Amino acid sequence: xxxIKSLAVVGSGQMGSxxxxxxxxxxxxxWLLDTDPVALSRASKAISSSLxxxxxxxxxxxxxxxxxxxxxxxxxxxxxxxAADFIIEAIIESEDVKKKLFLELDKIAKSSAILAxxxxxxxxxxxxSTTSRPRQVIGMHFMNPPPIMKLxxxxxxxxxxxxxxxxxxxxxxxxxxxxxxxxxxxxxxxxRILMPMINEAFFTLYTGVATKEDIDTGMxxxxxxxxxxxxxxxxxxxxxxxxxxxxxxxxxxxxxxAPCPLLVQYVDAGRIGRKCGIGVYDYRKLPEPIxxxxxx
Length: 296
Fold this sequence. Notes:
11 helices, eight-stranded mixed sheet, single chain
């Protein structure tokens, strides 16, 4: 396969914008697509700010930062991705929504393009089945945030070709990532292990074993984790955690993967973590108390 020179990323959330930033930083021409212009604007500002942090830390020159921004094009038009060599989907963790997108991408992408999913749990084989190019569909799961975290989890579907795998591996290596490879089973490697731990932390809170603070402190200081499981769940997004637990429960058919009722309740209440200001913890800024003028 020819060298990958252009990348398209669908979905401008934290994962999508981070992947787009990586591509631009490593010399690729990048399209970042989202149907929401507000989300695109927010992503563009986030990428610019992130690049400046790299510059301020001496990890990137100002010229390289400027060049990266020049290589990045934000768009709301799917047709503009026709020329992309490699397309990565980074949208909501819903199999039905992803399948619909892959069907559309298959129609507009050039015949040689690879279609990759950043899914952290959903079957690559089933996503590939909606396309006419299952040999060119693969899982490329980045960790959050993509510009910082060193790992990429590559997942081959039942029909993914060796050529597609090697091109994807080469792209991850170009991004200076460490690669692990998983078979196409629900949750793959990282979330097969991580999400049940987070779910168990919710059960520990739900059944009154300990406070949220003590659960997180216990795991941070007792097992040397940089973040406690409940704090990490808020960072990932409780809605994402719940979605992955449902995939594990359905795909593996074991009751031990049943989502904790407290996790379900928080998501139902809209308490989905840092991105909305409240999850297990409350991140909203409390209003400043009004200072009364001293009496004369």
